[in-house]
Amino acid sequence: MSSVPADVSLASGKSEIFEIVLRFLPDWIQHVVLVLILLAVVASWVLKLKRKLAHRRAVRQGGPAVVPTTPHQGSGADHLGAYAPQQQAARQPSGADFLGPYAPQHRPAAQQPAPPVAAPQSSGADFLGSYAPPRAPGDAAR
Asked: Would you say the pTM of this structure is higher than 0.90?
C-alpha cells in the first residue's frame, strides 16, 4: 500500500507550470513545442555520443585526448583583433604606465626624503567647526 494519497501529484512545480502553459496554447503549437523539445534532447544525446567516440578514438590512437575546436569556437580573445592586448615578454605593464605625466617619479633610494614625523591625526570632529562637541581634557592628546 502506498503512503502517498492518490490525488497528490508527484510532478514538480516546473512541470506543472509547463503543462498549464501548454494547455492554453492551440494544439498545433503544442505539437511543435513538444517536437522541438524532443529534438533538443536527441541532439544533446548525439553530441555527447559524438564527443565520447572522438575521445575514445584519440586515446586508442595515442593522439591528444582533447578534440580540437572547430574554427568558430575560439575564445573571446580571438575575436578582439586590433583591440587584443599586446604580448610583452620583458615585463608586465602596471597601472602607472598609463598615467603619463601624472605617474609618480621614481627616485633612487639615496635621494628619497625621510618619512615625515607622525602628525596628530584629525578626526571628523575637527571638520565640524562650531558644531563639534566640546573636547574633554584627555582628548587633546589624541
From this structure: no
